[in-house]
Amino acid sequence: MATVSEVTMQDIKRDLDELRGDLKQMVAGGFKAREKLADAKSRLWKSAHNLESCTEEQFKDAYDAIRRQGTRAVELGRENIEKRPLIILLSTLGIGLVLGRFLLRR
Fold it and tell me: What's the alpha-carbon Rg for the chain, to the nearest Å?
């Protein structure tokens, strides 16, 4: 018949073996979690870089479009002034007079 101390020692050994197994699983899980975290970090950086590239391209395209439209507007304005300089001058004078009256009333 086994004594109480032998049973207790066997229980302790079995518990220690279970704890070792659990600890191995936790450590392995920790490494897996660390790998998953590194993978997620890598994918996040790639996504951020892709977003930055797309945004930069869209900004450049918008800037170029605005620049072309502005250049075209200036060219049209110059053409109109060359075609009808007297009408433009009188229109500008009239607008200036109207604005001047409104501003002087205040």
Answer: 40
